[in-house]
């Protein structure tokens, strides 16, 4: 990407595209019912960020209780949601930043800083949830934190990695804009 510059049409939109993928993963984590699931038969427990559902037996109905009745449930949901909202704001700002013909590198560094803040909020929610869930909610059988919880962690890791990219990109401003003379290692005799 640095070799061809950000004006190279295929490389210009890689970072906003990765942010968009992070937003999609965040939506899956927020809407998914697979934060916690029973690992073995009979499947008697299933939880999302918002509620915990269980059923007494294999053929019986699921009964759900809201996790928003617990202070830790509200805290986990709020911190993860704040991190997700910051990620969406960074996505919108990245599209604006890369759509402008002349890049504002300080603006791009600000997006990277905001991504680190989003990662902190996301990780706080992702840590509060399993710690308090496993101590406050009675679980039957063998349970595991499942696919939607994994999407939440993937979003947080993407926020951290993209934060580094957005913060380090301005260090290569001259190379990106083509203001550096090429260095040749061949000398004539």
From TrEMBL:
Look up and give the membrane topology term.
Answer: Multi-pass membrane protein
Q: Which PANTHER family match?
A: P53 APOPTOSIS EFFECTOR RELATED TO PMP22 A (PTHR14399:SF13), P53-INDUCED PROTEIN RELATED (PTHR14399)
Q: What does the sequence similarity comment in the record state about its family?
A: Belongs to the TMEM47 family.
UniProt-annotated location(s): Cell junction, Desmosome; Cell membrane; Cytoplasm
Q: Name one Pfam family in it.
A: PMP22_Claudin
Q: Which GO terms of type biological process are on file?
A: apoptotic process; cell-cell adhesion
Cellular component GO terms, alphabetical: cytoplasm; desmosome; plasma membrane
Keyword presence, Cytoplasm: yes
Which residue ranges run through the membrane? 12-32, 77-100, 107-131, 151-172
What is the protein's given name? p53 apoptosis effector related to PMP-22
Major place of localization?
Answer: other
Q: Which species is this record about?
A: Oceanodroma tethys (Wedge-rumped storm-petrel)
- Which UniProt keyword terms apply here? Apoptosis, Cell adhesion, Cell junction, Cell membrane, Cytoplasm, Membrane, Transmembrane, Transmembrane helix
